[in-house]
């Protein structure tokens, strides 16, 4: 890392949605102002003077602000502020005067928007609209949830004046960026994961590069050209950070080339610069205690020193700057000491008011106050929770993230199907388990008790495909009276699958065909029930094709369906078996008679074993090495010189901590691989109407030996 920045707190506003903070441009050599819109509906613009926030204007509360954009008249600076709340868009000058109130009359609330001159681009969950002078011009219905929208500037997309025009790009949940032309889809490009946010790669909105961040924490750059995209690079999330919530572009390193600013859901803020090969290189990392809502660059304190502005979910505005390095060292200046004394007095006054209000509240509840003889009724508002339940495709687990505006007391997790939970490495919560009660439908009951002042908690959840139900999370904050909020997350039958846009037909394939008097909506709802990443409403078109890839087995699945007919293809027999079972149950619930036929390829079983065997062999070797660590370390204590040990034993001693960390990070993986191959063996036999239960112990003993030739021979002999 080449630069050093120190954080400093600027201001506190209400809770924030993603990308609701911007830096207003300055026409003169003056510090810039920060504009922020919160979930209380308050739009605030302020600057910094001598370390204090100076409010320029502040609107009255209203509906929660979901997105904020800057725009200006053609040829001028972008100093006009546009905000969306629900289906309404409002615009303000930099002084706070409202000059536009536009009700789009959309049934969906606006999730993201982009403004350029008289052009307004808005997206809801599935619908894209383009307005020119507040007149609806273009419309597009997406096949999956839209997370963000951005437009490439007209000069960057085409050289000929006839082809010039703003080019909308939609970031969709099905791992795709969709490039539009008017109301039509120009083309779509697949990216590494579900894109959560997008940004132009050059400051000021020039160029053709488009940066995207994904829900599994990956960052990528593509160039959007007229006929086809050009992939530049895709950066892996090697440190397993959270999803990318915001991307900013600003020259923080003063090299003349814009740096990439990343804000993540787990509070990690990163700065990347591009090297001579146009590849990203980390320059700076800082971790906040809350999830980051927005990140951008500017000159807020002085017009000569660049800063990184960071806003968090709870509404805190921070600055990261090299000028902050000297602050906080040495003696406290007199003006700062006076401010601290004032703050202490304000806190003392607030504590007295809270204490007085609490005594009054207790009196009312006991019937001795305004509530009369029978006492009052305690009505608590709904606890706001910023939650995520996202699939990490690299590790094949779900990350459950819970964040509140107040400190958490505990989380209670309950699930009616078998799931494994595991803390993340940096968590300070204490997990305690209660005995499962499968007879009453409770396979998991766990309590996570939080440490003091914890407002955000993450936990890993690993499901088993074929077993589906609901994960219930009871969120209890440290508030009086004690209350909890229930959040429910579906565990789907094929929960470890993720949308993709390719299918390799050269692999051995098993087929499941379903015929019956069902509609396209019926079969789409059944597929949505089985698989994650499928929209609630069916896409347009008579025939729909969806592709998926398993994050655990790396196998593929293709679903092609229309009215009265559906065909499923996969190189995993167990996937076909799960689909057959679930589709039969769902059709029975709706009293629809369906006919199911299947075609099983024996070669697909060998293909599956070859996919799994290297990982199983690696896990068995890791477990064997970990068992030797304690004995080898004891030997090292008693023997000064251990050079007589074999190279393998010396390697185990040198890497003991890494091995123990790895097996702790992925517990019970050997059992999962055993279950996977055993299910494959039994599912193949079930499709052929053969009972092979008595041969399972023999298969397990072969798996212990981990000889792939013997395992393949066993499958061949028991076709």
UniProtKB/TrEMBL annotation:
UniProt record, GO biological process: cilium assembly; intracellular protein localization
One Gene Ontology cellular component = BBSome
Highest taxon in the source lineage: Eukaryota
User: Pfam families per the record?
Assistant: BBS7_GAE (PF23360), BBS7_hp (PF23349), BBS7_pf (PF23361), Beta-prop_BBS7 (PF23743)
List residues of the BBS7 beta-propeller domain: 21-322
The record ties this protein, via InterPro entries, to: BBS7_GAE_dom, BBS7_hairpin, BBS7_pf_dom, Beta-prop_BBS7, WD40_repeat_dom_sf
What positions does the domain BBS7 platform occupy? 497-597
Domain BBS7 helical hairpin, residue spans: 602-715
Q: Where is the BBS7 GAE domain?
A: 381-489
The protein's name is: Bardet-Biedl syndrome 7 protein homolog
The organism is Amphimedon queenslandica
Q: What is the lineage of its organism?
A: Eukaryota, Metazoa, Porifera, Demospongiae, Heteroscleromorpha
């Amino acid at each position: 890392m080449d630069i050093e920045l120190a954080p400093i707190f600027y201001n506190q506003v209400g809770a924030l949605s993603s990308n609701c903070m911007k830096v207003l441009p300055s026409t003169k050599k003056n510090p810039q102002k920060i504009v922020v819109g919160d979930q209380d509906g308050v739009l605030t613009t302020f600057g910094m003077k001598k370390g204090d926030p100076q409010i320029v204007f502040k609107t009255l509360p209203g509906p929660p602000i979901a997105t904020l954009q800057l725009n200006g008249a053609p040829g001028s600076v972008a100093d006009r502020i546009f905000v969306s709340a629900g289906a309404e868009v409002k615009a303000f000058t930099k002084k706070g005067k409202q000059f536009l109130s536009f009700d789009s009359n959309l049934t969906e609330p606006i999730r993201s928007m982009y403004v350029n001159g008289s052009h307004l681009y808005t997206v809801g969950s599935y619908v894209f609209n383009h307005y020119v002078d507040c007149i609806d011009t273009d419309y597009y219905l997406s096949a999956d949830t839209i997370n963000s929208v951005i437009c490439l500037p007209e000069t960057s997309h085409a050289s000929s004046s006839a082809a010039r025009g703003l080019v909308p790009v939609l970031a969709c949940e099905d791992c795709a960026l969709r490039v539009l032309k008017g109301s039509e889809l120009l083309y779509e490009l697949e990216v590494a994961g579900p894109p959560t946010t997008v940004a132009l790669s050059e400051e000021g909105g020039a160029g053709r590069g488009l940066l995207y961040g994904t829900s599994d924490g990956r960052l990528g750059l593509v160039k959007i050209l007229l006929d086809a995209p050009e992939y530049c690079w895709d950066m892996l999330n090697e440190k397993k950070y959270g999803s990318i919530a915001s991307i900013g572009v600003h020259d923080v390193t003063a090299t003349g080339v814009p740096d990439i600013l990343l804000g993540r859901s787990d509070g990690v803020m990163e700065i990347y610069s591009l090297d001579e090969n146009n590849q990203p290189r980390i320059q700076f990392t800082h971790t906040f205690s809350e999830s980051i809502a927005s990140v951008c660059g500017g000159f807020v304190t002085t017009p000569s020193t660049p800063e990184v502005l960071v806003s968090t979910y709870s509404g805190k505005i921070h600055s990261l700057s090299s000028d902050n390095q000297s602050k906080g060292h040495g003696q406290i200046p007199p003006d700062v000491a006076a401010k601290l004394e004032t703050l202490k007095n304000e806190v003392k006054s607030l504590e007295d008011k809270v204490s007085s209000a609490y005594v009054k509240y207790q009196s009312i509840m006991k019937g001795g106050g305004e509530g009369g003889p029978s006492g009052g009724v305690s009505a608590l508002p709904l606890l706001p929770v910023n939650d995520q339940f996202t699939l990490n495709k690299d590790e094949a687990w779900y990350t459950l993230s819970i964040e509140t505006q107040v400190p958490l007391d505990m989380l209670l997790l309950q699930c009616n199907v078998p799931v494994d939970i595991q803390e993340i490495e940096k968590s300070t919560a204490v997990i305690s388990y209660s005995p499962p009660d499968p007879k009453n439908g409770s396979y998991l009951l766990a309590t996570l008790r939080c440490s003091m002042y914890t407002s955000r908690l993450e936990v890993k959840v690993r499901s088993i495909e074929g077993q589906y139900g609901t994960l219930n999370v009871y969120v209890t904050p440290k508030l009086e009276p004690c209350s909890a909020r229930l959040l429910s997350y579906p565990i789907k039958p094929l929960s470890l699958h993720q949308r993709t846009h390719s299918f390799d037909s050269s692999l051995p394939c098993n087929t499941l065909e379903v015929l019956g008097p069902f509609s396209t909506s019926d079969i789409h709802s059944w597929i949505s029930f089985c698989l994650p990443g499928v929209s609630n409403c069916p896409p347009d078109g008579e025939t729909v094709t969806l592709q998926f890839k398993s994050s655990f087995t790396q196998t593929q699945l293709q679903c092609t369906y229309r009215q009265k007919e559906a065909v499923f293809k996969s190189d995993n027999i167990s996937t076909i078996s799960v689909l057959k079972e679930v589709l039969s149950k769902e059709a029975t619930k709706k009293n629809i008679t369906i006919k199911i036929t299947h075609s099983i390829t024996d070669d697909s079983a060998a293909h599956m074993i070859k996919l799994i065997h290297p990982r199983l062999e690696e896990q068995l070797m890791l477990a064997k090495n970990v068992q030797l660590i304690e004995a080898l370390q004891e030997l090292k204590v008693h023997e000064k010189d251990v050079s007589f040990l074999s190279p393998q034993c010396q390697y185990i001693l040198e890497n003991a901590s890494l091995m123990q960390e790895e097996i702790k990070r992925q517990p019970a993986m050997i059992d999962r691989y055993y279950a996977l191959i055993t299910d494959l063996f039994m599912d193949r036999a079930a499709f052929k109407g053969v009972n092979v239960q008595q041969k399972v112990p023999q298969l397990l003993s072969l798996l212990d030996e981990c000889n792939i030739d013997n395992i393949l021979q066993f499958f061949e002999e028991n076709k």
